[in-house]
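Researcher: Good morning. I'm working through a list of sequences from a screen, and I'd like to move beyond sequence-only analysis. For each chain I'm collecting a predicted structure so we can compare shapes side by side. This is the next one on the list. No need for commentary yet; just the structure.
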Amino acid sequence: MNIYKIIIAAEKCILFFIALFTVFSVGAEMWTVIQNGKITLTDLLLMFIYAEVLGMVAAFYQYRKIPITLPIFIAITALCRLMILQGKGISTVDLIYEGGAVLLLAISTLIIQYGLSLNKDSDEH
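Model: Good morning. Structure tokens for this chain:
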């Protein structure tokens, strides 16, 4: 067995455990929400992050690659969740930095998508 096959097997094993742990975490989060009797925006954003992680694993198995925009969406969601969790106690400067990071990530997604569409257009000609 060559090293490439070992690395591919390890990669598939790690992705399996990522998916398994993500599903377990979603279940634990849902259980917490049920016990608390209320759903907050941060709970929804956390579950959305879990759904994006599962989507990333599924995309890898389907296409053998992970679209670069999926981790960027996860980062945007995580930053927004952080901003909400910090609440009114966050300093103005931190809020500007975190908002700027969200803006940069959103712009980078637009640039990537624009670049991909240009690449597809040039391949068709």
